[in-house]
Design goal:
The protein contains 15 helices and eight strands. The strands form two sheets. The protein has a six-stranded parallel beta sheet with strand order 1-8-5-4-2-3, sandwiched between helices. Strands 6-7 form a two-stranded antiparallel sheet. The two termini are about 35 Å apart. A hairpin with a 4-residue loop joins strand 6 and strand 7. The chain folds into two domains: about 170 residues, Rossmann fold (3-Layer(aba) Sandwich); about 200 residues, Up-down Bundle (Dehydroquinate synthase-like, alpha domain), CATH 1.20.1090. The protein is of the alpha/beta class. The structure holds 5,6-dihydroxy-NADP and zinc ion. 5,6-dihydroxy-NADP (NZQ) binds next to helix 2, helix 5, strand 6 and helix 7.
């Protein structure tokens, strides 16, 4: 097992009716900005509940954060915070709103150009950020319990990420009833995103992370079990509760501690979203099966373990076992209703050179657990995804 440091200070308050706990979690004297997305938080009453829980505190609201949160939109929130002298942020939504809030928290205190400082330079010089909490309405990204954020600059079609310990949420309210209203597409996206997060911290090479492997296998099996059931029963409390906790644990640093990681699928996926507007999870469902195929030799031992322990495949022939494991992964995404080919989204071979060019521009030229996915391999992965 590799050396590691594990730090996760986010308080999780889990369960039905927990939004009222906000009253104890936000300082009494706070001047609060509630950030949310399009209409879902307002329409389904979550915003009202949050406002009620904040009681007499000074509150301002900022809506309109896009799915794939936009830099220009978020900079308007930064302005509002300065204008109204606000000092505590509350994100109400899915990964986009929480990621956007992380960026806003850092940008408010940033000297210099926030895009450059936080996203291009990766926030390494950022010294402070506003405190914030979140109310999760869409299990998927794990943003509610991690220090990552992914921001899109629509003007230049760039999607960049940053990580900083300064943007761990102080708390996150995980009330599974809040995701009862998710449409099938968002549920499916969430299951696929969480599943791929686990795969990218698991499917590398054996590193004697026995517990990490078994955590990962347990999380993947839980998603395989509950994913299709959720599509049929989105208002089943226990299914949603398992989904919410699984997706948080998939991306809170726990399963990746002490083991190699391979984020190639995510990096390539981000470029596809930036250029073609696909949902985050759609890009992952397209790219992952091709990464598995292209890297099958390098990932051989873990692919066999994955085939055995996650999918219970026990064919005699090892190559056949790996083939089946890749097929079952693709079939799972398709079963959830997420298409797994670029052509399913009307994207053809002519789109590939620009994706590769953007990977190069963003320095993503040595991906994978052994940094052996160069631009040539990324191109092959994309071609295999057509
Ligand atoms: O905007 P509204 O009207 O609120 O609708 C949202 C949005 O259109 C809707 N929604 C959310 N909660 C709902 C709901 N609809 C009905 N009922 C509810 N309870 O769902 C739509 C998608 O929301 P979004 O927040 O965009 O989805 P998700 O949570 O999948 O977040 C995706 C973003 O997170 C980034 C992605 O790149 C993408 O930008 N990621 C963040 C990560 C992190 N911070 O660690 C890691 C991930 O790999 C990912 O890259
Ligand atoms: Zn993701």
């Amino acid at each position: 097992m590799n050396n590691f440091e594990f730090y996760n200070p986010t308080r999780i308050v889990f369960g039905k009716g927990q939004i009222k706990a906000i009253d104890e979690l936000v300082p009494q004297s706070a001047r609060v900005l509630i950030l949310f997305g399009g209409q879902s938080a307002r329409k389904h009453g979550t915003l009202d509940e949050v406002t009620a829980a904040l009681g007499q505190r000074h509150i301002e609201t900022f809506g309109g954060i896009e799915a794939n949160p936009g830099y220009s939109t978020l900079m308007q929130a930064v302005e509002l915070i300065h204008d109204k002298n606000l000092d505590f942020l509350l994100a109400v939504g899915g990964g986009s709103v929480i990621d956007g809030t992380k960026f806003v928290a850092a940008a408010v205190e940033c000297e210099g150009d926030p895009w450059q400082e936080i996203l291009v330079k990766g926030a390494k010089d950022i010294r402070s950020a506003l405190p914030f909490g979140s109310v999760l309405t869409l299990p998927a990204t794990g943003s509610e319990m991690n220090y990552n954020s992914v921001i899109t600059r629509y003007e230049t079609r760039e999607k960049l990420s940053f990580r900083s310990e300064l943007v761990f949420p102080r708390f996150s309210i995980l009330d599974p009833t809040k995701s009862f209203t998710l449409p099938p597409k968002q549920l499916a996206n969430g299951v696929v995103d969480a599943f791929v997060h686990i795969v990218e911290q698991y499917l590398t090479y054996p590193a004697e992370g026995r517990l990490q492997d078994r955590f990962s296998e347990g999380l993947m099996q839980t998603l395989i079990e509950i994913g299709p059931a959720l599509l049929n029963n989105p208002t089943d409390y226990d299914l949603q509760a398992n989904f919410m906790w699984t997706s948080s644990l998939a991306m809170n640093g726990l399963i990746g501690a002490g083991v190699p990681e391979d984020w190639a699928t995510h990096w390539i996926g981000h470029e596809i979203t930036a250029l073609h507007g696909l949902d985050h999870a759609q890009t992952l469902a397209i790219v992952l099966p091709s990464v598995m195929q292209e890297q099958r030799a390098a990932k051989r031992d873990k692919l066999l373990q994955y085939a055995d322990r996650v999918w219970h495949i026990n064919e005699a022939d090892e190559e056949r076992r790996i083939d089946l494991a890749i097929t079952k992964t693709r079939d799972f995404f398709e079963q959830m209703g997420v298409k797994t080919r670029l052509s399913d989204y009307q994207i053809g071979a002519e789109a590939i050179p620009l994706v590769v060019e953007q990977l190069e521009k963003h320095g993503l030229t040595r991906l994978g657990e052994r940094e052996d996915i160069d631009l040539g391999k990324s191109r092959k992965i994309l071609q295999a995804s057509l």
